[in-house]
Design brief:
mainly alpha, three-stranded antiparallel β-sheet, 5 strands, globular, lipid metabolism, 10 helices, Phosphatidate cytidylyltransferase, mitochondrial, 238 residues, mitochondrion inner membrane
């Protein structure tokens, strides 16, 4: 007997995919690629392109984390970025969704993000109390210089929006290039600003996707899908 499995799929132009991965324009495709996925066909070497997205995700998560945390905390924070402001999380999603995703795919998260953690460790920006253990306590440098470094790793669009809120200053590099840097008064201020930008982006994107999904699936199928989501959400809250 043949077995069937329901799969969610979408169609997107490669230009739109790259734009979201590099700039977090809608925080939809980039959010999905911050979690473990299985790429069937890759004509653009999207793995290399996505490394920019993964580095930015680590930086965003570190800005939101305290001075000490675990590897599970880090991946949970990364995973939660794409749910900030998601309208479905208010009533139609399992409140334990992020925890289940990370715990169920911890090894895959490790393989995705380990290179960036090793890089930060080599630069003495992160310190691991128990190397090679997912229960290790990770300590991070929360100085203003480290905060600037993390913000600099965020996508240009996010930095530009942060600069509009916090202010910008021009920095002349040795190469003669003039760069626009976000003015950061404190780590907390930078984290709040970034969080608001991501939350608003995800909120708009989730509303757009909800409407598109309803139109594509049709009223009956969309209602069934939503009812199933709500049922799971209510079970998780009991």
């Amino acid at each position: 007997m043949n077995s069937f499995q329901m799969l969610k799929y979408g169609v997107v132009r490669m230009h739109d995919l790259v734009q979201d991965v590099l700039h977090w324009e809608r925080f939809y495709l980039c959010g999905r690629l911050q979690k473990p996925v299985h790429i069937l066909v890759d004509n653009l070497d999207i793995g290399d392109v996505n490394s920019v997205n993964l580095r930015a995700a680590v930086s965003a998560a570190l800005l939101l984390l305290p001075s000490k945390f675990t590897e599970v905390d880090l991946y949970s924070k990364i995973c939660s970025l794409s749910y900030m402001g998601d309208l479905r999380m208010l009533f139609a999603e399992d409140k334990n969704k992020v925890k289940r995703i990370v715990e169920g795919q911890f090894g895959l998260f490790q393989s995705m993000y380990k290179p960036f953690l090793k890089e930060y460790e080599a630069k003495e920006l992160l310190t691991f109390s128990l190397p090679n253990s997912h229960q290790a306590t990770i300590s991070q440098d929360r100085s203003l210089s480290m905060t600037h470094s993390l913000v600099h790793s965020l996508p240009p669009l996010v930095r530009r929006k942060m600069g509009m809120k916090l202010g910008e200053m021009q920095v002349l590099k040795d190469s003669g290039r003039v760069l626009h840097e976000v003015v950061i008064g404190s780590r907390e201020e930078a984290a709040r600003s970034m969080q608001k930008i991501i939350r608003r982006t995800v909120m708009v994107s989730s509303a757009r996707q909800a409407v598109s999904g309803f139109l594509a699936a049709g009223g009956i199928n969309a209602t069934r899908y939503l009812a199933n989501k709500v049922r799971k959400a209510w079970k998780s809250w009991k």
